Each structure stands twice: as C-alpha cells, then as structure tokens.
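Ops channel
N.P.: pipeline sanity check, posting one input/output pair.
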C-alpha cells in the first residue's frame, strides 16, 4: 500500500527503493522503460549474475525503483 503526501507534508524520498520482481524479461523491460520515461536511469536493465534482467532508476516523481526478473519465463 502506498499513498501520496499532501504538498505541505511532502519530503524527498531517500534511503529506500521500491523493488518489483516480475516473471518475464519482456515485462521487466516494459515496466522499466515506462518508469524511466522522464526519470533517471541509475543502472540500465541488463543481465546480472543473479537475474536475467535487473535495473535501477528514479522515476519522474523522484521515487527510486529496482526492477528484477530472476529467470526467463
């Protein structure tokens, strides 16, 4: 569950990332590219030693994300 803060209570997110695990590489790519639009990619979505796809970004609203797909579907 998540919700937006009223403008007078907003604080810049820091010290965490929202982690999203998906089952298919194509789904990881779709989500990553949608979140990266007008955001900032910190680590491109690519294969790692633990995942078929992993990437990190901050979306246009300043929310940090980690997208992970451990294996090909």
């Amino acid at each position: 569950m998540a919700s937006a803060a009223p403008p007078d209570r907003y604080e810049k997110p820091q010290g965490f990332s929202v982690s999203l695990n998906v089952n298919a590489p194509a789904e990881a790519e779709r989500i990553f590219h949608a979140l990266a639009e007008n955001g900032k990619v910190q680590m491109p979505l690519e294969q790692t030693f633990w995942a078929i796809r992993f990437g990190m970004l901050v979306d246009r609203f300043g929310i940090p994300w980690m997208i992970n797909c451990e294996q090909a579907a």
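N.P.: looks fine end to end. The helical segments are 25-36.
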